[in-house]
Amino acid sequence: MDLLHDMNTAMKYIEENLTREIDFKVVARLAHCSEYHFKRMFSFLARISLSEYIRRRRLTLAALEFQNHNVKVIDVAMKYGYNSPDSFTRAFLNVHGITPSEARKNGRQLKAYPPMTFQLSIKGGTEMNYRIVEKEGFNVVGVKYEVMMVNEILTPTYESMISAISDNEMKELEASSNIEPYGVVHVSVNYSESKEGKATFNQYIGAATSKEPLEKYSVLEVPSLLWAVFEIDGNWEHVEEQWQRIYSEWLPSSLYELAEGPEILASKDQKSEIWISIKEK
User: Fewer beta carbons within 10 angstroms: which end of the chain, N or C?
Assistant: First the structure.
């Protein structure tokens, strides 16, 4: 498959440039997709952000450097993109559980994160119900959260975000829903990654509406976009499974890639829809 070849060509470039500045525009060009598409695809398939994967690979190689007892910590730090021994030592300790100086000692246990490649996995051909929708811009009104993801852990968690919204507020939001996607919507937008491996995004829990919002709620203006809309019956496990299949099965085999826009989960009457903003390849 060309997609697998392109993704692995991009991964090879990353591996060969762990001691240099990695140009994500080059990564995207090698993968024949946008930088945003590659990062989001990677985070869904690998379950960690691309920047976190690169950080772990660099610190894996850095640990091997200390088998040479004459190597200086500052030299290894600079080689793998750290501006000071202190910042390198903190990152090294976070991954390996010991300091670089301790790593020099014989018999100390270290962690290794091997290079990652993408492989084709043949699974049961379960159908996916979807439609392509071209939709004018609309507003989402609701509660806004600034979310950070480190080592696959969200802060705040989805459970705490939802529990912070009162029953009355949830009823207000649900009642304000009068345009697609209908029902209570969970919107993720403005995804970005830092060199330290942290991923951040804005999360809105609210409703798509044309009504005037109450002052206590935030408003997200969603621009005109092309959407792939997937229908799901079932509980949260089915929703999570469908998210994974969209990224691992549908997108790679489609004529589309991700557009830099929101990702929406809409729920109403025991049914859910996933809205993914897309553009033609």
Answer: N
